[in-house]
Amino acid sequence: MKDKFSVVTRFWFLLVLVLLLPRSGMSSNGARLVVDDDKVECPNAGFTHIQDAIDAASPGDHIRICKGTYVEQLTIRKALDIDADSGAVLMPNAMKPNTTSLFSGAPIATAILVADATDVSISGLTVDGVNNGISECAPDLEGVTFQNASGNIVRAAIRNFKLGTGLGGCQSGTGLFVQSGGGKISKVEIEDCTIHDFQKNGITANEIGTTAFIRRNVVTGIGPTAAIAQNGIQIGFGAGGAIAKNVVTNNVYSACIAVATCAAVATNILVTQSDGVEVSGNKAGISQVAIFVNGNAAEVERNETFAANVFDGIRLEGNQAEIRRNRVFNGAEAGIFVMGNNNVLEDNVITEAAIGILKETGSMGNLIAMNRFFDTPIAVQDPSPAGLANKIQPQR
Prior knowledge:
With about 400 residues, this protein is mostly beta strands.
């Protein structure tokens, strides 16, 4: 009995010891660097500038940014975990070009550039472009830019990336931009952020090689403006990913007042020249088109749209898409517009629209079934061809 008891005791002792030992997959071996602009909140901080900490860090290190205002532009080219305390604000002054577009080569001035790196995490930081100082249409002004880089940005506030008086028509001023080029890859998760007071786009993910998962963000345009056609969230030009559970509002091009004469449209959610993108669970309203998909094989499901100005709650110009279980309120032209073949429009609820579902004449093989209509005098109608793909104003 004594030997048996000893064996059991040793077993449990070894099990507890193993559980208490650190496991390589559960803990980080990286160093911890602390930044404080005035060393008031964190008197033992080793750095007063964020870029100095980034330069000193090794891949895999953790950087804590203490409360304060940091007047600098950042460049990140290594795997880092950057966490900001509440009240930590990056507010660069007189911003300078620090990269170029991977598509056009045009100069970009961005507050945070993440380039040619993987596993970059940014959390909790406010990025404010109010003092950007750019006085011309170029360079392109951006808040956070991922180029051939992967990682995530979580619970960030990105605001005031717009130009000054007289420059409101410049196609510049984006909160967060993800871009790939040269056959390389960018894979970025953008979650729980607030993005507002931008000039052109709130969030943009472009080009082949880019995958963006854009979830639970609040993106707010500047409201009615005749200067520029804004887009709240855009995935385009061969990029892929998902736009899910976001709230996107207030992107209105006020010069567009009638279907027949509108030269450009603003959108809350835009998918352009990209296939297989998921758009699900979003709330989008107050725009010419709340959700506009110009691509194939999209999944547009369980969204809620409202207050479409001039055009539609959901507009599809593509083939083989599934538009299911959406709730559409206040469609000006229509609740849902479809232009393309072999699409499924099923189990949607449309309330107060001039026409429930507009199907372009010549579109074939579309299944339109089990949709419900309220306060909508015409349920389904084939209109004359009226594509808008040449009137959207995407960022490139």
